[in-house]
Write a structure and sequence with these properties.
Radius of gyration: 17 Å
Keywords: Zinc
GO molecular function: hydrolase activity, acting on carbon-nitrogen (but not peptide) bonds, in linear amides
Protein name: N-acetylglucosaminyl deacetylase, LmbE family
CATH topology: Rossmann fold
CATH class: Alpha Beta
Number of domains: 1
Mean pLDDT: 95
Length: 247
């Protein structure tokens, strides 16, 4: 929800009333585009944060064969995660660029939710456009939408009863959050963790080096993303999130 001040809605502080977070995204580096700053704040405060990536980003480097790119990008993701205090990073088996919304995707995410038992799930916006009007990508849209449904699936033993057979009992997530949304409701003040966020993106060295020369460097890009959030929240740097409370 938002708080209101005069005629203009303002973002609510995300708060501190949770213990664990699961970040669900499509590719290595998706979390590093801003969310990692909040992750650094949360882990510094003693929260447990884990990552689940549905692909290994194997189609992300034009000059590198997908098999090699998968190995390189998986390690870069683990390196970037460690910088912000995350040691548990898991990957799915979906193909980069070919992720399809459907029962298989929902089941994989639901399984991970039941396994990790997070209070909070963070994923990406699944609309056609991100904040600032940038076009969204197919895998992002599929994973974001599937996460919406998987959060509900995770709490219902009869949707994927085979998960109970695997030993994963239902789990109810308290808060579902979308990064990159053009309609955020909450913010996380991350000014003290900007350098960690930049370093976590810089850890994706092979991927970053393959980007066009005109693409913003990590410090500039993270500065823009968190700067936009800061302007919306009235602080220096912030991650903005569209939050659905499920209590």
């Amino acid at each position: 929800m938002t708080e209101t001040g005069g005629d203009k809605p303002t973002l609510a502080d995300f708060g501190d009333d949770f213990a664990s977070v699961l970040c669900v995204v499509a590719h290595p580096d998706d979390i590093e585009y801003g969310t990692a700053a909040a992750v650094a704040k949360w882990t510094a405060a003693g929260k447990t944060v884990t990552y689940f990536l549905l692909t290994k980003g194997e189609a992300g480097i034009d000059t590198m064969h997908p098999d090699e790119a998968a190995r390189v990008r998986e390690q870069e993701e683990r390196d970037g995660a460690a910088i912000v205090g995350v040691s548990e990073v898991d990957f799915g088996t979906h193909r980069d660029g070919n992720v399809e919304y459907g029962l298989a995707l929902r089941r994989d995410i639901s399984r991970e939710i039941r396994r990790r038992k997070p209070d909070v799930v963070v994923t990406g916006h699944y609309g056609d456009r991100f904040v600032q009007g940038m076009l969204n990508q197919a895998d992002h849209r599929a994973v974001g939408l599937a996460t919406v449904d998987a959060v509900a699936d995770a709490g219902n033993r009869w949707i994927f009863p085979e998960l109970v057979d695997e030993g994963f009992e239902p789990w109810n997530v308290k808060r579902l959050c979308f990064g990159g949304s053009p309609t955020p409701t909450h913010f996380v003040d991350v000014g003290e963790h900007f350098d960690q966020a930049v370093a976590s993106l810089e850890a994706h060295e092979a991927y970053n080096s393959a980007l066009p020369d005109e693409f913003p460097k990590p410090a500039e890009l993270i500065g823009m993303i968190l700067g936009w959030g800061g302007q919306a929240a009235g602080v220096d740097k912030a991650l903005t999130l569209d939050v659905v409370e499920r209590r």
